[in-house]
Specification:
about 425 residues, five-stranded mixed sheet, alpha/beta, Nucleotidyltransferase, domain 5, globular, 5 strands, single chain, about 60% helix, 15 helices, 3 domains
Length: about 425
Amino acid sequence: MKELEVLGREKGLLLSLDGLMPEGGEPQLWIIRELQTGWTLRSGWMNNQDEAAFVEFLQPIADLHLPVKAVMSDKQRGLLPAVKIVFPNAKHGICQFHYLDNAAEPVAAADEQMKIGLRQEVRSEVGELIRKKQAEKPSIPVVTGMIPSPVPATPTSTTPVETKDADQRERIVQDILSRVRYLLTLKGHPPFRLAGIEMFSRLQEIVTCLQEFLAHQTEPRLLKLCTGLQKALATTHPTYLELSQSATWLVDLANILDPDGKPARTGEQVRAEWQARLTAIETQEHLSPRLQEFSAKISKVSNSYAPGLFHSYDIPGFPRTNNDRESEFRRLRQRLLSTTGQAGATKRLLLRSGAWELIPGPGSLVETTAAIAHVEFDEFLQERLRVQIHRSPFRLHTRSAKQSEFQLKKLLQRWKALPPTHAP
């Protein structure tokens, strides 16, 4: 406590507040941390999240009579007036990520609908083709553990060149089909990773690649896949253009708020840039009724969040988001799950003892290091090969645009290296 008093008097306290989503109507677990030190000041369960409950939760900190410079939180309705009552002189920062997430709500909802519609169109056009999944795994399953299966030996091939070429051609076709199947499973993570936009872009990338494949030599399945994808994409293209425009608006706002790679700016300077971009967005909303809807939502949420978005640029050490606190809750869930092995038990522990579990404890890798040190090098190489065999079918399962482009180029190079064949 003495160290906290010294910090408060010398620098002022920076507080972070966040709550864990409750289970089944149970009290919600909340935590208050001092940001400069990471110290847990208060952690406990709240039956209500109204103004009176938050005042009661915060008041013991105010009773220490230490200067509180700023508070970071999400935009809970009862919390905003409570902070103003308990810490009237503190700046109240609102998480910028939650601002962008709320502004993106209608865009994310429309993107999800577009994704579902595009997936249905693709399956309607080429469903039978992509469902015919060839065996992508080796002839034996990959088994590891204390008694692993042996790694299959690399064949000493005397296979004719024609057979090798046919096998190579088939592997390339199956890789392309695998890539399409994977893209139909994408899930969104708003506000920036919108699965519908991503699915459309990556499928269009495959169409472009397939056209180069077919220019070199025709393959009936690839021709059918290319034609089917083009038809499916054509039905979704107008919606894709609108969503891409609105997604660009959100990215632009996020880039303005992000200080990385920019000269130091005051909160007022950032606010002026941000406001100018909002004004520019309003001039583009006339392009379609849907864009008007998206623009109106962005404007409404922006006006609501504006008072708390810019304190971080003027207060050293004060973050722009509350995401670090939320990651602590995720790590806690993961740690309890790995300890208990039971999802239900993890939830019960969070409800019954989460306030104590949130206090960081020491960790050690000594046992893991000791175990690995006893592994023979040859066994390690064998195990690494098993991992490679298992991961091989997932080579094209990537959401990285750069990696996807690279992989498709490599497939195209392999395809062009094959001798042309006549379509059956």
